Amino acid sequence: MNYFSDKGYKKNNDSSNKIAVVFFNLGAPDKIESVRPFLRNLFLDPAIIRLPFLLRFPLALLISTLRTRQATKIYATLGGRSPLLENTKKQVAALEQNLQKIRSEKVKAFIAMRYWHPLSCDTVNEVKKWCPSQVILVPLYPQFSSSTTASSLRLWTRCARARGLKCKTKVLCCYPDAPGFVEAISNNIKELLQQEKSFAGQKPLRILFSAHGVPQKFVDRGDPYQHQMEKTVAAIVQSLKLSASNDWKLCYQSRVGPMKWLQPYTEDEIRRAGSERRPLLVVPIAFVSEHSETLYELDKEYFEIAIKSKVPIYLRAATVGVSSSFIIGLSSAISARLDSPTSASVSSYENKRICPRGFSNCPCPLDQKAA
């Protein structure tokens, strides 16, 4: 799958040695009045509801209307808005600063949200005004999925073509087990594991690695998301040197609707831990910043499930945020991707395909090798 082409691109004096780094994220409501249009944009995405437009459009309107009341209550508990954009701005500022230290070119970072402001097409306009010599697109979702990274890439490509942004473009498609990302999560876990001494008289602590779920049929059709989640967990387990006596589980949260999603479900694992009277440490591994799925779903909804299920101790690790390990690690991956001589427009942080051949939705060429 080749998203980009250099055809038609011409350098000019204004764009020499200027790199635009565009960071993708999903976006979230910035005020209560934004909840319904945000949900409408979300469910209108063909990567989310995979139906023809004539069927998807009325269904998206219906779902967004039905879910607005509950979603509004959630964001009301968070101060009337999601903190996602604010947290993303902090991350992007830190990444830009670090990239400016390690690159000889002028570097400027931009944010492109998929479902709410700043929207991708608006960001394309800003990038075009800055007139870079090269653009690199970086998702703030470490694990690739057709419902997140691929959706953001398709929208960016469409907007760039419509607005005449003709520029050499590379994509860092994923970094599920990149050292800096894994180190940042591991450090957050270590910080909480130090409290294990205070668990005297309790059964051994169980770690739940919780990821945002996707429908099982997405994976059955070649989406590498689950495979990459397993790579993330394997790298963390190795980093922490967890022995056979340590109890951990990969599970999935945030499912919507009656269809089968990736299992096991996080809430079921919390109930199971309660029945076994096991202390829990819940670790978000698909999110790099705090937002409603961590601050509300994990900290409030799932905490209440834990209390009702008689889980003796419920801890939740922070997301990686602006930790130095994550910022330095992702900056290094971006820099390596910029310097890679590979002709492929899309590649992982290793500058090669990291998904087995069977995952047809992986955007990296099958014959892609390390540069």
Key traits:
globular, 43% helix, Rossmann fold, single chain, four-stranded parallel sheet, five-stranded parallel sheet, 11 helices, 371 residues, alpha/beta, 2 domains
| Helical segment count | 11
Strand order of the largest sheet: 2-1-3-4-9
Straight-line distance between termini: 19 Å
Helix-strand pattern:
EHHHEHEHEHEHHEHEHEHE
Q: Which radius of gyration do the C-alpha atoms yield?
A: 21 Å
Helix percent reads: 40-55%
The percentage of residues in β strands lies in: 5-15%
CATH topology of the largest domain: Rossmann fold
Overall domain count: 2
Structural category? alpha/beta
Secondary-structure arrangement, i.e. CATH architecture of the largest domain = 3-Layer(aba) Sandwich
Structure explained in plain terms:
- Helix 5 links the parallel strand 3 and strand 4.
- Helix 3 (84-102) crosses helix 11, helix 4 packs across helix 5 (149-162) and helix 6 crosses helix 8.
- The chain is of the alpha/beta class and 371 residues long.
- The strands form two sheets. Strands 2-1-3-4-9 form a five-stranded parallel β-sheet, with helices on both faces. It has a four-stranded parallel β-sheet with strand order 6-5-7-8, with helices on both faces.
- It starts with 17 loop residues before the first strand and ends in a 24-residue tail after the last strand.
- It is globular, with a radius of gyration of 21 Å.
- Helix content is 43%, strand content 14%.
- It has helices at residues 35-44, 53-77, 84-102, 120-130, 149-162, 179-193, 216-220, 225-240, 266-275, 292-308, 324-339; strands at 18-25, 106-113, 134-139, 168-172, 206-212, 247-253, 280-284, 314-316, 346-347.
- It has two domains: 13-28 and 82-173 and 325-347, Rossmann fold, CATH 3.40.50; 179-316, Rossmann fold (3-Layer(aba) Sandwich).
- The chain is built from eleven helices and nine strands.
